[in-house]
Amino acid sequence: MILSSRWILSFTGCIQASKGGFIEAVEERGTPKTVLNHYDLAIKFHAYSSIPKTFSNDGYPYVGESTITGYMPNKCHETPPPHPTHFIRLDDKYEPYYIQMDENGVGISAPVWPYRAIGHYIESLYEQEFSHPGSYKACITSFRDFLKTLPETNPGNVLCVVKPIESSDDEYMAKRKRELIDEYGNGSFDLESVPSDKRYYIFNGPVRFTLKDTSDWMAHGYGSSQPVQVQESLFL
């Protein structure tokens, strides 16, 4: 990626002294003006915006998709493993939240919006691609459609539990837990008892969720597939 004088002189966000120092340091080094040769100076002078994102390290513009390093598997003709279905949907004012559950209806992930749930699923597909190359596109589409059509879980069937304050909690975490305990108590409470305009704070707090009755959930097949490993919330 070339650091031409046009790019060096056009970057923004640096104070004048830093800009001058960066340009002088590049010129003083005297090597070809590539990012490879001067990245340490870009870090030192915070001159990241001087790096053009449309050029390779060799100074050539990127054109189209790479056919060398890009992942271009043949279409999968085998039936891929089913996507995970251990989820419940909890509607909110803006977007629904999805919680991944274990086979007993106990939450194993933080409530997340659709794009996060899909993102976690995509991250888990790399192992499947070893055995079913090219299956990821159909799997992602299927999982996205599943989330869209998943009916809302009755809030009266969802039990919320605030995690107890622990010695390892930082000041912020302990404060969040204390506020929730003061309002809802140390035990469990139904999500239905939380006003709809306050559920956002429950969904984004140090709370675990459990289904009180899993019979309806299991009857609809939502617990019939293996769960996908997800990144747990800071609060879990």
Essential attributes:
236 residues; mainly alpha; three-stranded antiparallel beta sheet; two-stranded antiparallel sheet; 5 strands; disordered C terminus
Q: What can you see in these coordinates?
A:
With 236 residues, the protein is mainly alpha-helical. The model is unreliable at 1-17, 62-68 and 226-236 (pLDDT under 50). Helices cover 36% and strands 9% of the residues.
Indicate the topology.
Layout: H1 5-10, H2 16-29, H3 35-44, E1 87-90, E2 97-100, H4 114-124, H5 126-131, H6 136-149, E3 158-162, H7 171-184, E4 188-190, H8 199-203, E5 207-211, H9 215-219
Antiparallel strand pairs: 1-2, 3-4, 3-5
Helix pairs in contact: 4-6
The run of helices and strands is HHHEEHHHEHEHEH
> Order of strands in the sheet with the most strands?
4-3-5
Largest sheet: 3 strands, antiparallel
The whole-number mean of residue pLDDT values reads: 78
Helix content: 25-40%
How would you briefly describe this protein structure?
The protein is 36% helix and 9% strand. The protein has helices at residues 5-10, 16-29, 35-44, 114-124, 126-131, 136-149, 171-184, 199-203, 215-219, and strands at 87-90, 97-100, 158-162, 188-190, 207-211.
